[in-house]
Amino acid sequence: MDIYEYLQKLGIVYDRYDHEAVYTGEQADRLDIPDGSAKTKNLFLRDRKGRRHLLVSVRAEKAVDIKALEALLGVKGLSFASNERMMKYLGLRPGAVTILGIVNDRDIAVEVILDRDLWGEEAMQCHPLVNTGTLVISMDDVSRFIESTGHEVHIIDVPVRNG
């Protein structure tokens, strides 16, 4: 999937920043991307039986409390999905998890969860299916993108760890 072509067909405007591969928030913090958009952290999770898959997006500085998220969503045994599942459902490699990955989830098997704090931002940063680039996209356009994939977005107050 050519994500740039897909976004262009939707008329989605973005600022593009190419850079060396980033795998951590600390590496992303060193990128020269102007302020004005939320840095994100994306978790690809599965339930104990591997029947439910969730893509959870929050502001980068949040430390998600996975146990509390389990209780909130009524999911048992939430844990990080394997690299194989990440490739199968989102077409992504480790380090490149992004909201844009749902474009590859044609069966709409992945539940999209966005934190209310992130949803309230003007724009967000996300990888263009690889971790050697960052796109800044307005939240209105993120919403249109999600809708175009057939996914429903669940906006919740994602619980955070204390301390």
Written overview of the protein:
There is one protein chain. The chain has a 5-stranded mixed sheet with strand order 4-2-3-5-8. Strands 1-7-6 form a 3-stranded antiparallel sheet. The model has no long low-confidence stretch (mean pLDDT 94). Helix content is 27%, strand content 25%. By secondary structure, it is α/β, with parallel strands linked by helices. The longest helix is centred in the C-terminal third of the chain and has 11 residues, at 139-149. It has 6 helices and 8 strands, in the order αβαββαβαβαββαβ. It has one domain: Alpha-Beta Complex (YbaK protein), CATH 3.90.960.10.
What is shown here, in short?
This protein has 163 residues and is an alpha/beta fold. 29% of the residues are buried. The chain has helices at residues 3-10, 25-29, 66-73, 83-90, 116-119, 139-149, and strands at 14-18, 40-46, 53-59, 79-80, 110-115, 123-126, 133-138, 153-156.
